[in-house]
Design goal:
181 residues, alpha+beta, 3-stranded antiparallel beta sheet, 4 helices, elongated, disordered N terminus
Length: 181
């Protein structure tokens, strides 16, 4: 087991308090979801994945295991300054793709020469979609009134990953994970 793993003897989790079993979807084949218990906690998803793989190698019924991401953190990575030309460019790119796709699909329904009409309408759709996308992006940027002059990408990241196992086999899973290879 890696140094990033920690076994929880307390089924109430790190928050203490009443015995609240961790949420997990349970076995999809089961008619009712059984109680589950955390048997290990890891700081990275790769470590949790290796633990499940190890259980699978040891013929443990891994369909009774779930990996839960806990303590979610929202991260917004700023990717650059946003101004009118940048907003127009981003809008044009995001409008061009669906415009080309729609033009191509409508072109396939052409009776005379579907390939030529599909390609021609895809080109027209790309151009019209780019123009519409750029105009909409510039309008949205202008309506923000300078409150958000940057572009960013937002995502959520768990702080830890817990292995939860059906209560009936949790002791077996903990024992298998504690054994050295």
């Amino acid at each position: 087991m890696t140094s990033s793993a920690r076994h929880d003897a307390n089924p109430t989790g790190s928050r203490g308090g009443g015995a609240v079993p961790p949420w997990s979807p349970g076995n999809p084949d089961a008619s009712a979801r059984s109680a589950r218990r955390t048997v290990a906690s890891y700081t990275s998803y790769a470590d949790a994945e290796r633990a499940v793989d190890r259980l699978a190698d040891l013929d443990f019924p891994v369909e009774r295991v779930a990996i839960l991401g806990q303590d979610l953190q929202t991260v917004e990575q700023v990717t650059g300054k946003l101004d009118y030309p940048t907003a127009a460019w981003r809008g044009a790119v995001s409008g061009a793709v669906p415009g080309a796709l729609l033009g191509w699909i409508f072109g396939l329904f052409g009776w005379a020469d579907p390939l030529v009409s599909a390609l021609l309408l895809a080109l027209y759709g790309l151009l019209i979609g780019a123009v519409i996308g750029a105009v909409i992006a510039v309008i949205v940027y202008a309506l923000q009134g300078g409150r958000r002059d940057f572009a960013s990408v937002a995502f959520m990241r768990p702080q830890r990953f817990e292995l939860v196992v059906d209560d009936e086999v949790a002791d077996q899973a903990a024992r298998l994970l504690a054994e050295r290879v």
